[in-house]
Design goal:
heterodimer, A: about 90 residues, alpha/beta, three-stranded parallel beta sheet, two-stranded parallel sheet, 3 helices, 5 strands, about 40% helix, globular, B: about 190 residues, alpha+beta, Heat Shock Protein 90, 6 helices
Chain lengths: ~90, ~190
C-alpha cells in the first residue's frame, strides 16, 4: 500500500488539516489494511511539512502499520521526521 | 525594543496596545483558513522573490507552526480580538516574516500543565525546549522545538516575545525581559 501525500496538498501544516487527512485516509485508503501491514508514505511533491500535520497522520499510521518512507529530501520533511523521532 | 521594519512596528503596536487597534485587512487573519491561504501565498511570494526553495519552504514551516499555535491555544479563549497578524516582506532576497496575536500568551497556556512556572522567561524557555503542551492530555508540544531546531544552525533569526519575555534565537538562545505584549509576537528573519 502506497500513500501519495501530495494528494492531500503540497503545504501540510496544521493539526486540523492533518486530522481531516487521516480520517479521509482511514475511510478510503487504508480501511482494508490489516494491522502491521506495510504502508509506504511518499513525500514526492510535498513542499512544506510540519510536525503538527505529520503527528496527526504519520504518527497515527505508525501506531497501526509498518510505515516506510520515500522521497524525504525536502528539508521540512527531514526535520519534521527528526522532530517526531521517526527514523527515515 | 528597537523596531525597524514597518511590519514589525505595525504588529508590535497591535500586540501591545491596551485596546485593539484596527489593522489592515491584508495583514489580519481572523481564522485559521485565512491564515492557511496566506501562508500558501507567502511561499509563492518568496519563490518569486528568488528566495531559495529550501529556505522558502522552511520559513513557511516555521511560520505555519507559530501561526497555527496561536489558533490551537486560544480557540474559544481569545481575550479580545481573535486571530493573528501575519505579514511578510522582502528586501532583495532577505525575508522578514512577522506574526502576532492578542491571545493568552505562553505563560498562561503552559501554567495549566506546569503550575510551577513563575514568569514569562521560564515559560518561553520551557516552550522551546520541553515536549509539553497546554493542550494536555493531547499528546503534542513538538511545534516550537521544531522551530528552534530549524532556526539553530541556519542563517535564520527568530525574535519571539510573549508577555514580558523576549527570546532571541540564532546559533544561541538568549531570553531577557522586555516591555510586555498582550499575546505573542514573532519576527522571523532570513
Amino acid at each position: 500500500m502506497k500513500i501519495d501525500l501530495i494528494k492531500f496538498g503540497d503545504i501540510l501544516v496544521s493539526r486540523p488539516a492533518g486530522r481531516e487527512a487521516y480520517l479521509a485516509m482511514s475511510a478510503y485508503i487504508t480501511k482494508d489494511l490489516k494491522e502491521g501491514e506495510e504502508v509506504v508514505v511518499d513525500f514526492l511533491g510535498v513542499k512544506v511539512l510540519t510536525p503538527s500535520w505529520a503527528d496527526e497522520v504519520i504518527s497515527k499510521l505508525a501506531q497501526h502499520y509498518k510505515v516506510r518512507f520515500e522521497n524525504t529530501d525536502n528539508p521540512t520533511v527531514k526535520m519534521t521526521l527528526k522532530t517526531l523521532l521517526i527514523n527515515i | 525594543m528597537v523596531i525597524g521594519n514597518f511590519l514589525e512596528k505595525m504588529a508590535y503596536d497591535w500586540a501591545r496596545s491596551e485596546a485593539p487597534e484596527q489593522i489592515k485587512d491584508e495583514y489580519y487573519c481572523a481564522t485559521r483558513d485565512v491564515f492557511q491561504a496566506r501562508l500558501d501565498g507567502m511561499v509563492s511570494f518568496l519563490l518569486a522573490g528568488k528566495v531559495a526553495e529550501g529556505d522558502a519552504y522552511m520559513l513557511a514551516a516555521i511560520a505555519g507552526e507559530i501561526g497555527n499555535n496561536s489558533f490551537d491555544h486560544n480557540l474559544g479563549s481569545w481575550p479580545d480580538v481573535p486571530g493573528v497578524f501575519f505579514g511578510c516582506d522582502l528586501n532583495g532576497t532577505q525575508a522578514i516574516i512577522v506574526l502576532a496575536d492578542r491571545g493568552q500568551g505562553v505563560l498562561k497556556t503552559l501554567k495549566r500543565v506546569k503550575p510551577e512556572l513563575e514568569n514569562d522567561e521560564e515559560a518561553l524557555f520551557t516552550a522551546f525546549h520541553e515536549k509539553l503542551s497546554g493542550r494536555a492530555p493531547e499528546s503534542r508540544g513538538n511545534g516550537l522545538k521544531f522551530v528552534r531546531e530549524a532556526i539553530e544552525g541556519s542563517k535564520k533569526h527568530l525574535t519571539f516575545i510573549s508577555g514580558s519575555a523576549k527570546m532571541e534565537l540564532n546559533e544561541k538562545i538568549n531570553i531577557s525581559r522586555t516591555e510586555a505584549v498582550r499575546g505573542c509576537l514573532a519576527i522571523i528573519a532570513l
